[in-house]
Amino acid sequence: MKKIIIALLFLVVSFSSAQTRKYSNEFLNIGVDAGALGMANAVVATSGDVNSGYWNPAGLIHLEDNQVSFMHAAYFANIANYDYLAFAMPLDEKSAIALSLIRFGVDDILDTTSLVDADGNIDYTRINLFSAADYAFTFSYSRKLPIEGLSYGANAKVIRRVIGDFASSWGFGFDAALQYQKNKWQFGIMVRDITTTFNAWNVEDFAIGDLNGDGIPDEDQIPQIRDQELPETTEITIPKLQFGAARKFDLGKKFGLNTELDMNVRFAETNDIISSSAISITPAFGFELDYAKIVYLRGGVGNFQNIEQFDGSDNVGFQPNFGIGFQYRGIQVDYALTDIGDQSAAIYSNVFSIKVDWSIFR
């Protein structure tokens, strides 16, 4: 196990040394499943259901039957919609697979690039609507290793990003993960974009001022764009690391408690509370209290950031989360409220998700 972890870390450091963007494909870092979001995303060690395809594919080996999961969340006063759909199934006693789809998009955006015609007249009938949406399709695989309690998992991702007719991209990447369970202790490690994720963009020329529709930007008619250049057509996402430790507690005959502490690592300088020119780290802690595996109460805190104030000073912001859940005969409904009290730079959101176990159809 130690050799595998060292190999994963070596790959991360090697690829992160390349010239890449600090932030890329950020919609894939939001998280999925209201249950996990209620615990501040501190689930890399304990995830063991259909949603493990996102959090830690090594946890898929804990599936006992097929499962499907769906989540919806609205951001920025319902301007943006975030949706997630996943399906997972065990292949045998030692392996499992999952498929998932994520969409984060803003729809019905006004396109006013053709509002003024070639003669300088304003024509409101020339206003069109378009969508800016990001998609991610993921195939996940998990398998037990000969060491008892140890499993590994991997993701293959296809990313599609579309900005109306102006620009679009295709991207490809891989994740790798481990999970280990010993008695009531659980450990997990997830390396996202372990080989870096590559996005190739196609940017249309008319996106910067083609009023005549001839494919040539009308720079003489719009002085503001004379000095503009087309953006870069390639984008590299550097690896990110999440590792954590969790412990289960039995509180009487019907009550149970799961607690987990995670560390989220970026190989770049950010506003995380632990930050240097090469690495940034922010912790996350979450808990889940259950009654007879029917009713769940969750809480967590994470996203600790140094936030610059108007007077130039820095304050530490954090994101407290709360969640509840209910499970009955293979159907689980979860709710999460993120950023309670607006303690971080993030905007709070209400998140709902549902998980269905195939056993209810048998």
TrEMBL record:
Coiled coil: none annotated. Residues 1-18 form the signal peptide. The keyword Signal applies. Residues 25-187 form the Type IX secretion system protein PorV domain. Keywords: Signal. Pfam families: PorV (PF19572). The keyword Ribonucleoprotein does not apply. This is Type IX secretion system protein PorV domain-containing protein. It comes from Aquimarina amphilecti.
